[in-house]
Design goal:
The structure is a single chain. Helix 1 runs antiparallel to helix 5 (about 75-90), helix 1 (about 1-20) runs parallel beside helix 6 and helix 3 (about 35-55) packs parallel to helix 5. The protein has 7 helices and 3 strands, in the order H-H-H-E-H-H-E-E-H-H. It has one domain (about 1-160): Four Helix Bundle (Hemerythrin (Met), subunit A) (Up-down Bundle), CATH 1.20.120. Strand 2 and strand 3 form a beta hairpin. The protein has a 3-stranded mixed beta sheet. About 55% of the residues lie in helices and about 10% in strands. With about 160 residues, the protein is mainly alpha-helical. Pfam families: DinB (PF05163). It comes from Sinomicrobium weinanense. Keywords: Metal-binding. This is DinB family protein.
Length: about 160
């Protein structure tokens, strides 16, 4: 269930990418504090890549991601990376350590692969919600109903509709 939810979510990102022109992907959005849609794509992609690429070591530090400008400026590159994530995400659960520095203090917190996949999904949904705000001016775009909406909100809406 977890991996199929992530796959579906990543498919939604690919669907959006394929509808955007390069100019739209790279245009600063005032609604997003001047960030571009491409920058949000890069951020999402690199968080997943950080998890996948560090699975074997068992130690994840999302602050040490690549920050590849080509992902944020080139739609084809972004979609290729999304495809790579979809092909390599499903792995066995195992203990992991999350590392981060806060206020000059290094933290090392125990986690698990499935927990971090779930975190990445929630993180992606959050960024999709932001992107939805930035792209609503493009009337021609078709987004899934779930794009940028938390699964709990979708379930709540279903219950209210009954």
């Amino acid at each position: 269930m977890l991996f199929s939810s992530v796959q579906s979510n990543l498919d939604d990102l690919t669907d959006l990418a394929e509808q955007l022109s390069s100019e739209e992907y790279n245009a600063p959005c005032p609604e997003l504090g001047g960030a571009t849609i491409g920058q949000h794509f890069r951020h999402i992609i690199e968080i997943f890549l950080c998890l996948i690429n560090n699975y074997e070591t068992g130690s994840i530090n999302y602050d040490k991601r690549e920050r590849n400008r080509k992902i944020e400026t080139d739609i084809t590159t972004a979609v290729e990376h999304i495809d790579h994530i979809k092909e390599n995400l499903e792995k066995e659960n195992k203990p992991l350590f999350l590392e981060q520095t806060l206020n000059c203090t290094k933290l090392r917190i125990q986690s698990s692969y499935f927990r971090e996949v779930l975190y990445n999904l929630e993180h992606t949904i959050h960024h999709q919600a932001l992107m939805r705000v930035g792209i609503r001016k493009f009337d021609r775009l078709i987004l899934s109903e779930s794009f940028g909406v938390a699964p709990s909100t979708i379930e709540y809406r279903k219950k209210c509709a009954q």
